[in-house]
Amino acid sequence: MTAETSQTLDRGLRVLKLLADTDHGLTVTELSNRLGVNRTVVYRLLATLEQHALVRRDLGGRARVGLGVLRLGRQVHPLVREAALPALRSLAEDIGATAHLTLVDGSDALAVAVVEPTWTDYHVAYRAGFRHPLDRGAAGRAILAARSMPVGEPGYTLTHGELEAGASGAAAPLLGVTGVEGSVGVVMLAEAVPERVGPRVVHAAKEVAEALR
């Protein structure tokens, strides 16, 4: 540190870098140990970063990078959407259902990219910007499941009627994208999700993750 630099700002940036390098978040104690400062300092840093949505803490108290980091760059969301669109378009056309990329925003799941199939007579209307609680709907539940999933182990989540009556959803988490929590999924008007959809969604999630790395 030199006389011209800010120790507090430096520590805050170090917190963001530490959180960006983990997929499962860090506790106050873990951050304290890695920064070499006491827990009170860490609490203050996290509280300040949370006010700007740069950091969020889950129900277990683990701190993670917040979606506000993405908002710092006005072109980030368009870039994320652009990277995800080829895989989403392929998924929507293959399954004949609305495909979406969803990211965590606080305690909500936020759809940031949506592609509807072109050849179906009807499909679920789903728009970018739609949000819902993480514990409802396949997109959010897939993200929550990934938090307790062994690292690198693919899987998918199925739901029915949780967000819209008569609609079923399938989603798989994005894995291996540092600092980003999200999922890729489809929503369809059906009583049950066809067997082949789950593995197909997992494949699409892998494609999107590769495009975002």
Automatic annotation (TrEMBL):
Keywords from the named record: DNA-binding, Transcription, Transcription regulation
- Mind telling me which Pfam families this protein's record contains? HTH_IclR, IclR_C
Record-annotated HTH iclR-type domain positions: 6-67
Q: Which residues form the IclR-ED domain?
A: 68-213
What is the official name of this protein in its record? Helix-turn-helix domain-containing protein
Q: Organism, per UniProt? A: Streptomyces spinosisporus
